[in-house]
TrEMBL record:
<dbReference type="InterPro" id="IPR003439">
    <property type="entry name" value="ABC_transporter-like_ATP-bd"/>
</dbReference>
<dbReference type="Pfam" id="PF00005">
    <property type="entry name" value="ABC_tran"/>
</dbReference>
<keyword id="KW-1003">Cell membrane</keyword>
<feature type="domain" description="ABC transporter">
    <location>
        <begin position="6"/>
        <end position="234"/>
    </location>
</feature>
<dbReference type="GO" id="GO:0005886">
    <property type="term" value="C:plasma membrane"/>
</dbReference>
<keyword id="KW-0547">Nucleotide-binding</keyword>
<protein>
    <submittedName>
        <fullName>ABC transporter ATP-binding protein</fullName>
    </submittedName>
</protein>
<dbReference type="GO" id="GO:0005524">
    <property type="term" value="F:ATP binding"/>
</dbReference>
<keyword id="KW-0067">ATP-binding</keyword>
<dbReference type="InterPro" id="IPR003593">
    <property type="entry name" value="AAA+_ATPase"/>
</dbReference>
<dbReference type="InterPro" id="IPR027417">
    <property type="entry name" value="P-loop_NTPase"/>
</dbReference>
<dbReference type="GO" id="GO:0016887">
    <property type="term" value="F:ATP hydrolysis activity"/>
</dbReference>
<dbReference type="InterPro" id="IPR051120">
    <property type="entry name" value="ABC_AA/LPS_Transport"/>
</dbReference>
<keyword id="KW-0997">Cell inner membrane</keyword>
<keyword id="KW-0813">Transport</keyword>
<keyword id="KW-0472">Membrane</keyword>
Length: 235
């Protein structure tokens, strides 16, 4: 069995005539944070969806902990330890913060004693009895993250968590993601905010029109002619 947590090999995905992912190959190790960047429409969210099971790849394989998971539905992948946050946080607005976490926790029969530490981690212990609909966008993003954490993920797919947040809020999220990584949770972070990404990861994958253009440090990516051309072409 490979020591990698996740491996994508030759992944293709099309919608009708449009090829959205074209031979995507990469690996993620346990506890590693990998950034996924690229212009709008380059296939970042589709990559996340193919890993989480919301979509299935047309060709290629997705391996998780040494097992091929291509055909597993999303809930089975979640039980194996893959979960995600959403660009627009998906919280139950009429439930309290605590109830939101409890619902997610029940799906994996998490020990209820684990809920308070999650509320502490996401900084919402003081607002646990407020309804989620009354939270700020930043707090809803943290709650969305907390709901994913309640499923005890080994791999967290984080989709544009930084959008719309101020520098202080970004700081809190960056520190939290680093803390989770240090505990062994791997992450793929889709993000347009490159400064934010630079703080939390040493390796990025750049997609352009569904193809992998680059894999390496963000600093090297910013000097790569193909990467520059993809971003300029998309501007
Ligand atoms: N369900 C779908 N049906 C048809 N086309 C889709 C579907 N989902 C995505 N697409 C198309 O696939 C391409 C890649 O979309 P995707 O959302 O993966 O890009 P992205 O890199 O995440 O973009 P953004 O940065 O804007 O979120 C786009 O052209 C998009 O319009």
């Amino acid at each position: 069995m490979s020591s990698e947590l996740l491996q994508l090999a030759g992944v293709h995905k099309h919608f009708g005539a449009q090829v959205v992912l074209n031979d995507v190959n990469f690996r993620v190790a346990p506890g590693e944070i990998v950034g996924l960047v690229g212009p709008n429409g380059s296939g970042k969210t589709t990559t996340i969806n193919v890993i989480s099971g919301l979509l299935q790849a047309d060709h290629g394989t997705v391996d998780f902990m040494g097992h091929k998971i291509n055909r597993l539905p999303m809930h089975r992948r979640a039980r194996l330890g893959i979960n995600r946050t959403f660009q627009v946080p998906k919280v139950f607005r009429d439930m309290t913060v605590r109830e939101n976490i409890e619902v997610a926790a029940r799906s994996v029969r998490l020990d209820p004693r684990e809920i308070d530490p999650i509320l502490e981690d996401i900084g919402l212990a003081g607002t646990a009895s407020r309804v989620a609909g009354a939270l700020t966008v930043n707090q809803q993003k943290l709650l969305d993250l907390g709901r994913a954490l309640a499923t005890q993920p080994k791999l967290l797919l984080v989709d544009e968590i930084g959008a719309g947040l101020n520098p202080a809020e970004l700081n809190v999220i960056a520190e939290l993601l680093k803390k989770l990584s240090a505990r062994g949770i791997a992450m793929i972070v889709v993000e347009h905010l490159l400064d934010f990404l630079n703080r939390i990861t040493e390796r990025v994958i750049v997609l352009g029109a569904g193809r992998m253009l680059f894999e390496g440090s963000l600093e090297t990516a910013s000097r790569d002619p193909e990467v520059i051309a993809a971003f300029i072409g998309a501007a």
